[in-house]
């Protein structure tokens, strides 16, 4: 037994969504058909508009349908700070911290085994952006993974001697966790990076 | 900070999918935009086609774009058996068991508090379907919930004395579980419905 062809096509298409397997896709397809066809049509329209209309900000390379995204076009932000991240979701995460400087969004991280060198992830554009600006500090906020570290090191080396501070986000124990659940590497970083209390 | 308008619209639209909250919708939207725009366009197309093209089988009332679904039009199935379920996903579940009779798909279950009486869930059409057929047995496979039980009872009473067997799927302990994790009501049903072993 199987679903009718149109339903089967919809189930297959839903499986391209991250985290959606066969069972979830079935439930999604049938629930839309049974309970919310107008919502399904709205989603269809939103997908088509976004897939065709969203490009990249010319300045920070985050996803945006405007030539300049709303972060780059905001004149109240701090032009002395540039935060370099691996992707658009990271911009969102850093914004939540209250950071109000500028951003540059790489296309992921260096990954020589996959053939992804500096050009593939946008490092030449990053260097151009930095030349064109007047940044006092470049914050390297790539992911705390082996690849993210290597990418941060590569960028730091490319910028050495250009007169701006190069900083890396701190590694340490996450807030609210229990020490015994923290992995050894993280704990070692947290110890090495210990700071004086009471000022 | 926020995403650009088109991305925001896409995130909002994705949240109509069952089980998809704000964070999941963000990840879905950005992943499609960053990595699979052609997949996103295929999903857009599949949604539009299905929402507009899928109707209901005239005979069993399951979702189908044909007047007769592939289960109803299959002449090799057993015309003596009719299995009554609450929705199209249940048809799929029952098919997995090897059942090869006919189906009738209600629109959910009786729910007087929500104003859903026999007409709202398609019981008149079920009775017509039964009149038009020559069923020896009607298997009531509504959900093992209070509402599903009430719906099965209502249908059984409506069909009493019409000469066909009326059966209800068995309640009991699910296969592969541990007895201590089974709730008391289920275990009581399993005890009451105990059957002789060794033939
Ligand atoms: Zn920008
Ligand atoms: Zn049918």
Automatic annotation (TrEMBL), chains A, B:
<protein>
    <recommendedName>
        <fullName>Recombination protein RecR</fullName>
    </recommendedName>
</protein>
<keyword id="KW-0234">DNA repair</keyword>
<keyword id="KW-0233">DNA recombination</keyword>
<dbReference type="InterPro" id="IPR015967">
    <property type="entry name" value="Rcmb_RecR_Znf"/>
</dbReference>
<dbReference type="Pfam" id="PF21176">
    <property type="entry name" value="RecR_HhH"/>
</dbReference>
<feature type="domain" description="Toprim">
    <location>
        <begin position="80"/>
        <end position="174"/>
    </location>
</feature>
<dbReference type="Pfam" id="PF21175">
    <property type="entry name" value="RecR_C"/>
</dbReference>
<comment type="function">
    <text>May play a role in DNA repair. It seems to be involved in an RecBC-independent recombinational process of DNA repair. It may act with RecF and RecO.</text>
</comment>
<dbReference type="Pfam" id="PF13662">
    <property type="entry name" value="Toprim_4"/>
</dbReference>
<keyword id="KW-0863">Zinc-finger</keyword>
<dbReference type="Pfam" id="PF02132">
    <property type="entry name" value="RecR_ZnF"/>
</dbReference>
<dbReference type="InterPro" id="IPR023627">
    <property type="entry name" value="Rcmb_RecR"/>
</dbReference>
<dbReference type="InterPro" id="IPR034137">
    <property type="entry name" value="TOPRIM_RecR"/>
</dbReference>
<keyword id="KW-0479">Metal-binding</keyword>
<dbReference type="InterPro" id="IPR000093">
    <property type="entry name" value="DNA_Rcmb_RecR"/>
</dbReference>
<dbReference type="InterPro" id="IPR006171">
    <property type="entry name" value="TOPRIM_dom"/>
</dbReference>
<keyword id="KW-0862">Zinc</keyword>
<feature type="zinc finger region" description="C4-type">
    <location>
        <begin position="57"/>
        <end position="72"/>
    </location>
</feature>
<keyword id="KW-0227">DNA damage</keyword>
<comment type="similarity">
    <text>Belongs to the RecR family.</text>
</comment>
């Amino acid at each position: 037994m199987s679903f009718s062809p149109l339903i089967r096509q919809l189930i297959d298409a839903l499986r391209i969504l991250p985290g959606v397997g066969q069972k979830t896709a079935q439930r999604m397809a049938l629930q839309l058909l049974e309970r919310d066809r107008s919502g399904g049509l709205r989603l269809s329209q939103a997908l088509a508009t976004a897939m065709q209309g969203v490009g990249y900000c010319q300045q920070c390379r985050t996803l945006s349908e405007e030539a300049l995204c709303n972060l780059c076009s905001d004149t109240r932000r701090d032009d002395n700070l540039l935060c370099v991240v691996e992707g658009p979701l990271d911009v969102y995460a850093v914004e939540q911290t209250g950071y109000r400087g500028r951003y540059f969004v790489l296309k992921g991280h260096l990954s020589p085994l996959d053939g992804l060198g500096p050009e593939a992830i946008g490092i030449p554009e990053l260097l151009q952006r930095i030349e064109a600006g007047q940044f006092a500090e470049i914050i390297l906020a790539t992911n705390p993974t082996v690849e993210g570290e290597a990418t941060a090191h590569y960028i730091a080396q490319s910028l050495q001697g250009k007169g701006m501070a190069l900083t890396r986000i701190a590694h340490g124990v996450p807030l609210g966790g229990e020490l015994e659940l923290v992995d050894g590497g993280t704990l070692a970083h947290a110890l090495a990076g210990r700071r004086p209390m009471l000022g």
